[in-house]
Every structure is written in C-alpha cells, then in structure tokens.
Structure to design on (445 residues):
C-alpha cells in the first residue's frame, strides 16, 4: 500500500525551520514535476551529517555482523547500501525522497588521493613502475572481454548490440562518466534511452563492485596464506623516521595544510593540461583532450613535495598523520557517494540488460581471481590489486581503493597496490578503454 507524502504533509515544517533559523527553511521542500514526488532538499552540512550517520551505521553493522569484517566490506559501503535500499523503499512506497548535496564529495576525494601521492617515495616508484604498465595491459584486456561479452550476449538475445556495449566497458570499467560521454553518440546510432541505460548499468556496477572486491581479495590472501610485503617497498629512512612520529593536533593540522597546498597547486596545473589535444578520436569524432582527473596532478605534486623534503632533509612528512587525514578523506567521500546512490535508476535493469550485467559480474570475478592475481605476481599485493580491480573494473577507482583499504586494514599494508591501481584506474585506462570502445562501435552500427 502506498502512503504518499506531499507538500501538504509538511505545511507546518517551514515556520518551524524558520523559527530555528536554519539556512534552508525557504527552499527545503519542493515537488518534483511530473512524478508527484516530495523531495526534502538538504544543504551541504545537512547532507554531510546524513553521510556521517550512514558511515557509523556501517561501523555498527560490521560489529553486529562478523561476516562483513571477514569479507572486508568497507564501513561506508555497508552503511551506504543499507541506506540506499531504505531510501528506495521510502521513495517507492511513500513518494518521498531526500535530495543529497554531494558537493563535498570532490574535495574529500582530492584529499584522499593526494595522501596516496604523499607515500610515493622514489624507492616505491622504482619498484612499482613496471607494475603500472603490466596492470594497464591487464585492465585493457578486461575492457576487450567486457565489450565482447556485452555485444555477444546482446546479439544472442536479439537486442541492439549497442546495449551490450553500454553494459560492457563503457560503464563497467568506464563508470558513470564514460557512460554519460558515450550515451548521446549511442542515441544517434539508434539506441533509444541510452542515457537511462548507462546510468542504470553504472549504478549496478558501482554497487556490485564495491561488495565483491573485499571478499575476493581476502579469499585469495587466506587461500594462499599470503603475508604483507610492505617493508620491501618502504623507504628505510622514512620507516625509521615514522617510528618516532607523533599523531596530535599540530601534526594532523600540518599534514592537512601540506595536502591542501598540493591540491591547490595540482588544480592550477590541471587547467592548462585540460586543453592539450591527443591523437585519439573521442565519441563525438573530435580529438580527445588530456582532461586529467583533478586528483592526478595533486598526487604528482604531493609526491614531489615528499621526495624533495626527504631527499634534501629540509623537512619531513609525517606519514602517520597523513594516513589519518587520508582515511578521513576516503571514508567521508565514500559515505557521501553511497548516501547519494540512486537505486531507483536500476528500475531499467531488467530482462536482457539484467542477463548481460549478471554475466559481467561473473566475468569480473573470474578475471580478477584468475588473471589479475596471477599476472600481478600471485603475492599479497597482487591479491589486494585483484580486490581493487573489482571496484574500478565495475564501478570507479575510489571504490577500488576502498576495497583495497578494507583489505589492508584486515591483513596489512600493500604499498605497491596503492601506487599501481590509482594511476591506472584514474588516468591511463581511460585512453585504452576509449580506443577499445571506438573499435567495438564499428561492429555495432
């Protein structure tokens, strides 16, 4: 039975909010045109407060349900998925929805990825550099398989091959951004509702990839009795200095200041880089531009700051304090992202589309378990990368990193994994994926 909530239900709320002098009392409520849906629009701080509650819901769930810890499900994912389903139920039965402002999502994401740059010592770069190239090849092969499976199954089911392509690397490895970029082109090529299909497929991948990576990585570690090799990739000088590091207000504030400076410099550098044209054609037929994700320049600047300080001895970056700031950034980002998850977009995942996405899930699991793990070295870092690959191979790079973070918290550090996956997932894979998609499009027309 439906219990619709309308604006009339909130006729007394406006005056109360005004009396409490809340900033949103004038625009807190509005009716979505055409849907008879009442939406309570939350501002920045209110949305952030809800996201933090969702995070602690996840923490509580992990304490109550031991399996979540065993399978390394991140707290923001555990709480976020439960909240998203509750939000969906309320929306569909009571026609009431929360409007979540996710503006804070990007700053927290920038903070987190910049802290990864703060760990990229020269020693780590030397030892992990080849791994970046190998993993890029592995991830690119997955793109080919995802598109082949998507188009093959779509044709077998009598559907437009472009639907299979959208359910392939366009949204699986590419995520929401690549899906939105290609949807207009697919519409012009004859696929009606391409935007809706892309959003639904990307949302499906985001949820499944976040839930699958932790269990897969932890299973590989337990089955093969793998141990962390973090010490091999740690700069000995940094390791000795970190033993005496203090984590207090002064150190955390100092680390935050350095991170913010790195983000600011990185954002300035990214502006001219966005206009650099590449010898690759994009979905519109025009040359692609470099268009680096905002956090890539910030990661590079952070690494430069670290290595100048450690190389000259002029200053020291407190790795413990930086880690605290990075953990806050990641958990805040993920909590906001999953709080804003719109599961109702999955309403279009039915019939043939559901079959294709189900097969993509199986493909991702098998590929990460047998290919990613073995090719990346069959060691602890390889298992961690395999878990992370599920996150960005079916959703987004931050979700992959969240999977790896949860594995790291349970089993120990994997610095090589945290160096390799963000570089490939955040930047390099976009170019090879774009090329793969463009080639497959020639067979879909």
């Amino acid at each position: 039975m439906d219990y619709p909530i309308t604006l009339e239900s909130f006729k007394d709320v406006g005056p109360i909010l005004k009396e409490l002098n809340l900033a949103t009392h004038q625009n807190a409520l509005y009716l979505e045109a055409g849907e008879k849906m009442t939406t309570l629009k939350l501002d920045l701080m209110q949305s952030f407060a809800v996201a933090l509650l969702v995070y602690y819901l996840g923490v509580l769930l992990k304490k109550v349900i031991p399996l979540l810890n065993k399978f390394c499900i991140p707290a923001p994912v555990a709480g976020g998925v439960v909240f998203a389903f509750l939000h969906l139920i309320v929306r569909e039965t009571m026609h009431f929805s929360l409007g979540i402002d996710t503006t804070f999502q990007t700053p927290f994401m920038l903070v987190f990825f910049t802290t990864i740059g703060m760990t990229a010592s020269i020693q780590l770069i030397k030892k992990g550099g080849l791994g970046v190239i190998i993993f890029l090849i592995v991830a690119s092969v997955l793109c080919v398989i995802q598109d082949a499976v998507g188009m093959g199954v779509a044709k077998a089911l009598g559907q437009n091959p472009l639907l299979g392509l959208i359910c392939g690397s366009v949204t699986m490895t590419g995520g929401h951004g690549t899906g939105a970029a290609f949807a207009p082109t697919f519409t012009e090529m004859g696929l009606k509702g391409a935007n809706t299909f892309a959003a639904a497929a990307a949302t499906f991948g985001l949820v499944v990839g976040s839930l699958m990576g932790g269990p897969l990585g932890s299973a590989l570690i337990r089955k093969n009795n793998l141990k962390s090799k973090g010490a091999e990739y740690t700069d000995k000088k940094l390791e000795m200095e970190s033993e005496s590091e203090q984590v207090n207000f002064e150190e955390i504030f100092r680390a935050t200041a350095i991170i913010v400076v790195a983000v600011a410099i990185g954002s300035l550098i990214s502006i001219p880089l966005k206009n650099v044209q590449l010898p690759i054609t994009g979905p519109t037929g025009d040359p692609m531009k470099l268009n680096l994700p905002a956090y890539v320049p910030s990661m590079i600047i952070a690494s430069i700051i670290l290595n100048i300080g450690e190389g000259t001895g002029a200053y020291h970056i407190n790795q413990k304090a930086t880690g605290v700031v990075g953990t806050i950034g990641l958990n805040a980002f993920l909590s906001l992202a999953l709080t804003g998850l719109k599961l109702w977009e999955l309403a279009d995942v039915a019939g043939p589309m559901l079959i294709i996405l189900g097969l993509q899930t199986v493909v991702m699991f098998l590929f990460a378990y047998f290919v990613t793990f073995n090719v990346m070295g069959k060691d602890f870092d390889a298992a961690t990368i395999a878990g992370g690959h599920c996150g960005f191979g079916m959703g987004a790079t931050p979700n992959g990193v969240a999977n790896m973070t949860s594995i790291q918290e349970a089993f120990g550090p994997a610095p090589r994994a945290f160096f390799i996956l963000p570089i490939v997932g955040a930047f390099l894979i976009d170019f090879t994926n774009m090329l793969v998609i463009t080639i497959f499009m020639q067979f879909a027309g």
The chain has two domains: 7-101, 108-441.
